[in-house]
Amino acid sequence: MSALLLTVAIAGEKVALPVDHIESVNELELLVPVPRSPSHIAGLSTLRSRVLTVVDCRCALGLGISPNREAGASAAIAVHDGHAYALLLDTIHGVAEARSDPFPPSGRLQSNWADMAQGMVETDDGPLLLLEVAALIAGPPEARAA
Q1: Buried-most residue among 91, 111, 112, 135 (CB within 10 A)?
Q2: How far is 72 from 68, CA to CA, in rounded Å?
Q3: pLDDT (tens digit per residue) in 92-104
């Protein structure tokens, strides 16, 4: 496998997202809360006159609300099922190349990491957990059941 990955940090953990699902990376200029939305939906934002649903990845993983749910936060912009999303991240590290196909993690994953992961991939920076963009957007199991 030789896929490109966006390397990011969520809740202090360095992980990867497949770049074929990512349009760009940006800082959010505006974040408007949406009343009665699932907890992992931080609100709405805009990018070049397009409305984005902002997904708090930390919250989607069952790790609490991100402390950077505000304008200026780093986000990866993704399109899924024709809708645009901003994936709220702690840090965006860069782009890396996957040196392997996904393989099962060596230990048990905590919180919702296992539900959100495709597996581990080898990179030049070492093994990283490869997260599924669609699973992050769907959120934790309680949000999918609602």
Answers
A1: 112
A2: 8
A3: 999 999 999 999 9
